[in-house]
Design brief:
- The structure holds 3 protein chains of 3 kinds.
- By secondary structure, chain A is of the alpha/beta class.
- Chain A contains 14 helices and 17 strands.
- In chain A, the strands form 4 sheets. In chain A, strands 1-14-13-17-15-16 form a 6-stranded mixed beta sheet. Chain A has a 4-stranded antiparallel beta sheet with strand order 2-8-7-4, with no helix packed on it. Chain A has a 4-stranded parallel beta sheet with strand order 11-10-9-12, with helices on both faces.
- In chain A, β5 and β6 (about 70) form a beta hairpin.
- The longest helix of chain A is centred in the last third of the chain and has 23 residues, at about 425-445.
- Chain A is globular, with a radius of gyration of 22 Å.
- Chain B contains 11 helices and 9 strands.
- Chain B has helices at about 1-30, 35-45, 55-65, 80-90, 125-130, 145-150, 180, 210-215, 225-230, 255-260, 280-295, and strands at about 100-105, 115-120, 155-160, 165-170, 190, 200, 235-240, 240-245, 265-270.
- In chain B, the strands form 4 sheets. In chain B, strands 1-5 form a two-stranded antiparallel ribbon. Chain B has a two-stranded antiparallel sheet with strand order 3-4. In chain B, strands 6-9 form a two-stranded antiparallel sheet.
- In chain B, a hairpin with a 2-residue loop joins β7 and β8 (about 240-245).
- In chain B, α2 (about 35-45) crosses α3.
- The longest helix of chain B is centred in the N-terminal third of the chain and has 27 residues, at about 1-30.
- Chain C starts with a strand and ends in a 9-residue tail after the last helix.
- By secondary structure, chain C is mostly helical.
- The chains are: A alpha/beta, B alpha+beta, C mainly alpha.
- Chains A and C meet through β15, β16, α9, α13 and α14 of A and β1 and α1 of C.
C-alpha cells in the first residue's frame, strides 16, 4: 500500500464522529464574516452598515488576484463593518450581519438533483470558482482559482483529491465523501477539465474503507479517475506528502510548488464546493464542520453557515464539558487553540476539537536526550532538535542552510518528543524569521535590477 | 638520563621550528589595518551589545574610522561624552544625542488586567505573539514572558513577579535598544532621560476603542483626550484612541497626570500636583498616588 | 467550565513515551540477562548490580543537588540504566569498592561534568568500565567460573575470547548452545546472548531503539571474521564458526544492543548510525584479532562515540524533495 517516503507518526485517530451523518445546524441569528479568511490579500467589503443582504450575495470582493470573494451566508441587515476579535483574540476586520429570515440571492440552484454534464471551458470554470470565493477547505485556505490557473511554462499532469483527513478527531471530509460522493466525483471531472488533464487520483487512508469502496464504485463510471488507498500515517494529508504518496514524485524545497511536479491537489470538501459553484451557482457560504472531543456529549458533523459562532456548534454538541481545557479550531496536530469562542466558523475550519484539561496540558519539558525521534519523525527530512536549538541561539544563517523553510509545521517532531520539548514552537518562530529575512533580501535586491 | 636529555632536546627543536614557521606565516598573511581602529575600540565601552547597529564594538570602531561622516553613528552605551572623545581623536564631528532610557509603556498589572486564559506554550513573547492575543484581553500590552529581559546585556530590566510586567533600572539602562527590538508588541520605547530619572509618559499602547480597553484593562488609555486639552505645551497628541506624550515638548508640568481618568499616565520620580479641591475623591486618590513614586525611586 | 482555557501552539498531543518510560524499558530489557547471569554466577551478580545501581543513583542525586544545583532529574531512571550496564561489564567477583569507584567515574566524570543526560559524549557505563580495566586490571580480568561448571576445566578463569586469544582454545571449543545460554566465564551481562536478544526484541517492540545500529555492528563483525577466516585459508566449518563465535562471545551483543544505541552517544540519523556501527564492528574485530586486549567492544564504542559529533555534522538526513 502506498504512503509518503520519509518520517511520519501515528497519533491515536479518535475519529469519534465518523459514523454520524451530517446534520444541518440551525441558522445563527448573527454572523460575523472576517474579510481575511484565506491566504493572500483580504477581501474588500462591498457593503456598509445598514445594508440589506441576501443569502449568497457578494459582500466582499477579492482584494487582488491572490484573494477570494466572500458572500453573505444569511439574509439580513449589516450591523457593522469593524474590528472584531477572532478565535485567537486578535482584532480582524469583520462584517456583522443580523439575520432576517433566509432569502436567497437569485441564480443559486439549491435542489439536490445531480448535474453531471459540464460543457464550460476551462476559463469559464475557473471564473465561476473565483466568483464563488472558493478556497482550500482543508485548513490552508489557498484560493482555489489561483491554484487552478496554471502558470505559463508549467503543465499539470494530474489532479489529486485529498480525502486523507489524517488529522486526528476530524471526520468532515470522510462524511462528505460518503454522503456526497456522486457530486464530489463530478467535481473531480470539473477540476480535470479546468486544468486540462486526463488523470485524477482520490487519495484516501485505509482507515476509511467505506469511503474507499463508495468512491471506487462511483469513480468506475468515469474515465481517468482512480481511488488510491493509502497506508495510515500522519501527515499524509499534507500536500507534498500526498503527492509523494500517490505519484512517487517529491516536490522540491520552496519556492517550488506542487505544479512543478505536475500535480494539482484539492481537498475533498473543496472539490464538493467546486461542484456546487460550477454546476449550481452556489457560492462558498457553508461547510461541514466536525465538532468533537472525548468529553463532549455528542460529537457531530454539522453543515454550518460561515460566520456562525463556534459557541453555537459547541452548544449543539451538548455544551462545553466541565473539564474542558482547550478548544481547538481544527484538529489536535495542527489546529489553533482558541480563546474567543464567539468567533466565527470560517472557510478553512474543518472541525472544532475540545480537549480535556488533562489531555490538553503539556507535560513538563526536560532536557534533550538526543534520541533522534524527531529526526526520524520529520516528513520533510529536517533535524527539528537542531533547528529548535539554533532558533534559540538566533543563528538564522545556519537555520536557512539546514532548510528550515521546508518545515510544514505538521507537529510530528514535538508530538513524538520523549523530553516534551517545545520543538515546533521554536522551529515555527525560526521559520518565520528566516522567511522574513529571505523576503527582505529579495526586496533589497529588487531595485538594483 | 639520556632519555630525558633527548626528550628535552627534541621538544626544544620542535618549539623553535614551530616558532619560525609561525613567524613566516604571520608575515605572509598579515592584514594591514588602520591602528586607529584599535584605539577607537578601546575608547568604546566594549559591551558588544549591538545597540549601535553593528555586531560589536569592533564593527563600530571600524565604521567610525573609515567613514567621513560619522554624524549618524552613535554609541548609546558610551553616550555623548564617549562620542565626543572619539570624534576629537578622529578629528570628525560627533553626533549629539540626549541621554535616553528604555520605558515600558504598559500598566496592565495582574491586578488591573485580569488573565482570561492560560498560556501553556514555550515562554517566549515572540512565540506567543505570533500565536494569539496573549493571556489577557488586551491585544496590545505586555505579554509578560520576558523576551526583553533575555535581550538585555546590562541586567537593567527585570520581570516583577507581582505585576507580571518588566521594570527598567534607569541607572543600569544604557538605551542600547535591544529590549525595544526584542518586544514583539512594541511596548518599550526609548525616551528622553530626565535628571533624577524623572518621567511622565502614557503607560499604555492600546489602539483599541475606549470601551474595549476598559473591558480588558483598568489601567489602559481610552483615548478620551482630556490630557491633550490640559497640556499647555502641545506635547500630547491622541491618535488611534491612544495618547502620546512627546518627550521633547513635555516640561514635566504633571497637569495631565491628574486629568487621566484611568491612571494611564505614569509619573516617576516626582510628587503629583495637589488635586484641585473640586474633586471629592481627592483625599482618597492622593495617598495612593504619592505612594507610587516612593515605590519607584 | 471550571478553569481558564489553555492556549499553546500546535501540536496539542504529546507521546506517552516519556524519557523515564524509555529508560525504564531499557532496564526491563536488561532483566532477562540479569536473571540468566544470576543463575550462571550466583547471587554475587545481584550484589554487584545492586551496589552499582544504588551508587549511580546516589552519585547523580548528590551531584545534581549539591554541585550542579539545577533541576533534579534523577527520577528519569537514566542513572539506573547506567548502573545496570556498568554492573553488566564487571566480573561477579569484583570487590564492592571497585564498583563504587566505577560508578563514580561513570556518573561524576563521564556524565555530569558534561551536563548530564543527553550531553555526555561518551557512554558513562563504558567510561567507568574502561577506567576500572586500566586501574584495576587484575580484579577486572579475574572471571569467576559458572556455578554449575563441570565440563569447562579447559577454560578455567579465562573468557572464551581470552582463551582464543592466548591460544588455549580454538573458537570452536564452545558450542553455540553454551554461547547462547551463557555457560562460560565472563562479565555479568555479556554471557547470556539469548537473554540479551530477548531484551533486544523488547526494545524493538517498545520502539525504544531501531534495529540499524545493533544489526549493522553484528553483521560487520561477522563479515569481518568470515573474510579473515577466508584469507587465512580456513575452509568448511571454520568459515562460519569464526563469525558465529565472534558475534556470540564476549560483549558483542551487550555492546551493540545496549551500549552503542545509547541515544546521546550515537548519531542522530539512520545513515550516520550505520557508519557509526560499521566503525564499531571493524574496530572491535581489529582489537580482538590483533590488539593487546582479548575484547575490544568497549574501546570500539568509545572511539566511535568520539566521532559522533563529526558524523552528526556531515551526515544530514535525506531532505524531502532534494535529489
Amino acid at each position: 500500500m502506498k504512503t509518503f517516503p520519509i518520517g511520519g507518526v501515528h497519533p491515536s485517530a479518535n475519529k469519534l464522529s465518523s459514523a454520524k451523518a451530517i446534520e444541518v445546524l440551525p441558522l445563527p441569528e448573527v454572523v460575523t464574516i472576517p474579510l481575511a479568511q484565506h491566504i493572500g490579500a483580504p477581501a474588500v467589503a462591498k457593503v456598509a452598515k445598514g445594508d440589506k443582504v441576501l443569502t449568497g450575495q457578494l459582500i466582499a470582493e477579492a482584494g487582488s488576484f491572490m484573494s477570494a470573494n466572500i458572500h453573505s451566508p444569511i439574509s439580513g441587515t449589516v450591523t457593522a463593518v469593524d474590528l472584531v476579535p477572532n478565535g485567537q483574540g486578535l482584532r480582524q476586520m469583520m462584517i456583522t450581519i443580523k439575520r432576517e429570515g433566509d432569502e436567497w440571492a437569485e441564480g443559486i440552484d439549491r435542489s439536490e438533483q445531480l448535474v453531471k454534464a459540464c460543457d464550460l471551458s476551462a476559463q469559464e470554470i475557473i471564473a465561476r470558482i473565483k466568483a464563488a470565493g472558493i478556497v482550500g477547505m482543508g485548513g490552508a485556505t489557498f484560493p482555489t482559482h489561483v491554484k487552478l490557473s496554471i502558470p505559463a511554462g508549467k503543465k499539470a499532469e494530474c489532479v489529486i483529491i485529498n480525502g486523507v483527513e489524517c488529522e486526528p478527531y476530524l471526520t468532515s471530509d470522510h462524511r462528505m465523501m460518503l454522503e456526497h460522493g456522486e457530486e464530489l466525483v463530478v467535481g473531480v471531472t470539473i477540476l480535470m477539465k479546468a486544468v486540462g488533464v486526463e488523470k485524477a487520483y482520490i487519495g484516501i487512508e485505509n482507515n476509511k474503507p467505506d469511503a474507499i469502496e463508495h468512491l471506487s464504485k462511483i469513480a468506475a463510471q468515469y474515465k481517468g479517475i482512480e481511488v488510491v488507498p493509502l497506508k495510515v500515517r500522519y501527515p499524509q494529508g499534507g500536500e507534498k506528502q500526498l503527492i509523494a504518496a500517490v505519484t512517487g514524485r517529491q516536490v522540491p524545497p520552496p519556492p517550488a510548488l506542487p505544479i512543478d511536479v505536475g500535480a494539482v491537489v484539492c481537498n475533498a470538501s473543496t472539490t464538493y464546493a467546486v461542484y456546487q459553484a460550477v454546476q449550481k451557482g452556489m457560492p462558498l457560504i457553508q461547510r461541514v464542520v466536525t465538532i468533537t472531543g472525548k468529553n463532549l456529549k455528542e460529537p457531530k458533523n454539522l453543515l454550518t453557515r460561515m460566520g456562525t459562532p463556534v459557541s453555537a456548534l459547541i452548544a449543539a454538541a451538548g455544551g462545553l464539558p466541565e473539564d474542558a481545557g482547550k478548544v481547538i479550531n481544527g484538529g489536535p496536530m495542527m489546529g489553533r487553540a482558541m480563546v474567543n469562542l464567539d468567533s466565527p466558523v470560517t472557510k478553512g475550519c474543518s472541525g472544532i476539537t475540545v480537549l480535556s484539561e488533562r489531555d490538553a496540558r503539556r507535560h513538563e519539558s526536560s532536557q534533550c536526550i538526543k534520541c533522534a525521534k524527531c529526526v526520524a519523525a520529520c516528513p520533510m527530512g529536517l533535524e527539528p532538535y537542531y533547528l529548535s536549538k539554533m532558533t534559540q541561539k538566533k543563528n538564522w544563517d545556519e537555520l536557512e542552510a539546514r532548510m528550515i523553510t521546508s518545515c510544514i509545521e505538521c507537529g510530528c517532531c514535538q508530538s513524538t518528543c520523549p523530553a516534551y520539548l517545545p520543538l515546533l514552537d521554536w522551529v515555527r518562530l525560526g521559520k518565520q524569521t528566516v522567511m522574513g529575512r529571505i523576503r527582505a533580501r529579495a526586496a533589497a535586491a529588487a531595485p538594483k535590477k | 638520563m639520556e632519555v630525558l636529555l633527548y626528550t628535552i632536546l627534541t621538544l626544544c627543536v620542535l618549539g623553535v621550528l614551530a616558532a619560525v614557521i609561525l613567524y613566516f606565516v604571520a608575515q605572509k598573511f598579515r592584514v594591514e589595518e588602520d591602528p586607529r581602529i584599535d584605539e577607537v575600540e578601546k575608547m568604546l565601552p566594549g559591551a558588544n551589545c549591538g545597540g549601535c547597529g553593528f555586531a560589536g564594538c569592533r564593527g563600530m570602531a571600524d565604521a567610525l574610522v573609515k567613514r567621513d561622516d560619522i554624524s549618524e553613528l552613535f554609541c548609546p552605551v558610551g553616550g555623548g561624552d564617549c562620542m565626543k572623545a572619539i570624534a576629537g581623536y578622529l578629528g570628525k564631528a560627533a553626533a549629539e544625542k540626549q541621554p535616553e532610557v528604555a520605558t515600558v509603556r504598559c500598566g496592565g498589572t495582574c491586578e488591573k488586567r485580569p488573565r482570561t486564559n492560560e498560556y501553556n506554550g514555550v515562554k517566549s513573547c515572540a512565540v506567543a505573539a505570533s500565536l494569539y492575543v496573549g493571556e489577557t484581553g488586551c491585544a496590545f500590552g505586555c505579554l509578560g514572558f520576558g523576551d526583553c529581559v533575555a535581550a538585555c546585556a546590562f541586567d537593567a530590566i527585570h520581570m516583577n513577579p507581582e505585576t507580571g510586567l518588566p521594570e527598567v533600572d534607569p541607572d543600569k539602562c544604557t538605551a542600547c535598544g535591544a529590549c525595544v527590538k526584542a518586544c514583539p508588541k512594541m511596548v518599550i520605547e526609548l525616551r528622553k532621560k530626565w535628571p533624577k530619572n524623572r518621567a511622565v509618559y502614557v503607560s499604555c499602547v492600546s489602539k483599541d476603542k475606549g470601551a474595549v480597553v476598559m473591558k480588558a484593562c483598568k489601567a489602559g488609555c481610552i483615548g478620551c483626550g482630556k490630557c491633550e486639552k490640559v497640556c499647555a505645551f502641545g506635547a500630547i497628541t491622541v491618535e488611534n484612541n491612544l495618547a502620546y506624550i512627546d518627550p521633547q515638548k513635555c516640561k514635566l508640568c504633571r497637569k495631565c497626570v491628574n486629568e487621566c481618568p484611568t491612571g494611564a499616565i505614569k509619573l516617576v520620580g516626582m510628587e503629583p500636583l495637589p488635586k484641585e479641591p473640586k474633586a471629592p475623591a481627592a483625599p482618597k486618590a492622593a495617598p495612593a498616588a504619592t505612594k507610587e513614586p516612593n515605590h519607584e525611586s | 467550565m471550571a478553569n481558564k482555557l489553555l492556549v499553546a501552539p500546535a501540536p496539542h498531543v504529546q507521546t506517552s513515551q516519556s524519557t523515564a518510560r524509555i529508560m525504564r524499558d531499557v532496564v526491563i530489557a536488561l532483566m532477562p540477562a540479569l536473571v540468566v547471569s544470576t543463575i550462571v554466577f550466583g547471587v554475587d551478580v545481584l550484589r554487584v548490580t545492586a551496589i552499582s545501581v544504588a551508587a549511580c543513583v546516589v552519585f547523580e542525586f548528590l551531584i545534581q543537588k549539591y554541585v550542579v544545583r539545577g533541576p533534579l532529574t534523577v527520577s528519569n531512571w537514566s542513572a539506573v540504566v547506567t548502573g545496570v550496564l556498568l554492573a553488566f561489564n564487571l566480573p561477579a567477583s569484583i570487590p564492592w569498592w571497585i564498583v563504587l569507584i566505577g560508578a563514580f567515574v561513570a556518573i561524576a566524570i563521564a556524565k555530569m561534568t558534561f551536563g548530564g543526560l543527553g550531553k555526555n559524549p561518551f557512554n558513562p557505563a563504558l567510561v567507568g568500565r574502561v577506567f576500572l580495566l586500566v586501574a584495576y586490571p587484575v580484579q577486572m580480568t579475574t572471571w569467576p567460573m559458572p556455578v554449575q561448571n563441570g565440563a569447562f576445566d579447559a577454560l578455567s578463569g579465562a573468557t572464551p575470547l581470552a582463551a582464543v586469544k592466548q591460544g588455549i582454545a580454538g573458537p570452536d571449543a564452545l558450542g553455540v548452545q553454551d554461547l547462547l545460554l551463557g555457560n562460560m566465564p565472563g562479565s555479568l551481562g555479556e554471557v547470556a546472548a539469548l537473554a540479551l536478544l530477548v531484551g533486544f526484541a523488547y526494545l524493538l517492540w517498545r520502539r525504544v531503539i531501531t534495529w540499524h545500529i545493533p544489526v549493522t555492528i553484528l553483521v560487520t563483525m561477522a563479515v569481518f571474521a568470515f573474510l579473515v577466516a577466508l584469507c587465512s585459508g580456513e575452509s568448511g566449518a571454520m568459515l562460519w564458526q569464526l563469525p558465529l563465535f565472534h558475534v556470540l562471545a564476549g560483549g558483542a551483543i551487550l555492546g551493540s544492543v545496549f551500549m552503542a544505541t545509547d541515544y546521546s552517544t550515537s548519531p542522530m540519523t539512520v545513515k550516520g548510525g550505520v557508519i557509526f556501527a560499521v566503525g564499531i564492528g571493524v574496530i572491535t574485530m581489529l582489537i580482538r584479532l590483533w590488539g593487546a586486549y582479548p575484547e575490544g567492544m568497549s574501546f570500539a564504542i568509545l572511539l566511535m562515540n568520539a566521532c559522533v559529533p563529526l558524523i552528526n555534522k556531515y551526515v544530514q538526513p535525506k531532505r524531502f524533495g532534494v535529489k
